[in-house]
Amino acid sequence: MTSVSVIDTVSNSLVASARVGTSPNIVAITPDGNRAYVTNSGDNSVSVIDTATNNVVTRVGVGSVPVGVAITRVALQTLEPTAPTNCSVMVVTCGNQATLSCDPVPIPNSLVLEARRNHTSQVPPPFQGVGVTGPMLPDGANGVYDAPIEPGDNEFEACDVAPSFVRACVWPVPSFGPDLEGCPGNPTPPQPLVPARRCIKEGCQPRNGRCFCQ
């Protein structure tokens, strides 16, 4: 399916069809009713429709498999996005999640975290969007928390994305972690044995290299 149907709500009849991208999912209408935004999960894009003519005026490439879109009520005279600054990524949960922190991006823009695995090919693989924080914070989005990543992802990109889907990104973003101690394949190392003499001196009972105190 590559089209969106326009239906007259009075007569429930089809009045027009707009040709969009592959596998359209969700439609969002601007508050003034002049534009409709359609997510195309089949080709990673968003189609913008002029509702006066029911024609697609542009198609914007976005992250992988977009399945939702929303229109902010904040005035859309958005500042042109600029690459986020002072960003870093902490990889946690045995390498399965990542948290991004940056200086706040201007409202109503969103902050997006993208990830990929280190590569050796001449043509690097594309980054995959793994997490986003929308314009919900008083001073602007400044972090993406606990975004799911693939084990082994170790290259990260941070993007400031405007409501118009214009984006500006910074890469590489320095990353830290993960601490694999206790994770599958990386068992927690045994605790050092406690000398019996020290154990008794502390008023405890030595047993199997450990101190047991009442």
> How does the major sheet shape up?
4 strands, antiparallel
Record the strand order, biggest sheet: 3-4-5-6
Mean pLDDT comes to 82
What is the helical fraction, as a range of percent? Answer: under 10%
Computed over alpha carbons, the radius of gyration is: 25 Å
Q: How far apart lie the N and C ends?
A: 71 Å
Number of strands: 16
Q: How many helical elements?
A: 1
Instruction: Kindly name the structural category.
Output: mainly beta
Order of helices and strands: EEEEEEEEEEEEEEHEE
Strand content: 35-45%
pLDDT < 50 stretches: none
Overall shape: it is: elongated
How would you summarize the topology of this molecule?
Layout: E1 3-8, E2 13-19, E3 24-29, E4 35-40, E5 45-50, E6 55-61, E7 88-92, E8 97-101, E9 110-117, E10 128-133, E11 143-148, E12 153-161, E13 167-170, E14 175-176, H1 196-201, E15 205-207, E16 210-212
Parallel strand pairs: 7-14
Antiparallel strand pairs: 1-2, 3-4, 4-5, 5-6, 7-8, 8-11, 9-10, 9-12, 12-13, 15-16
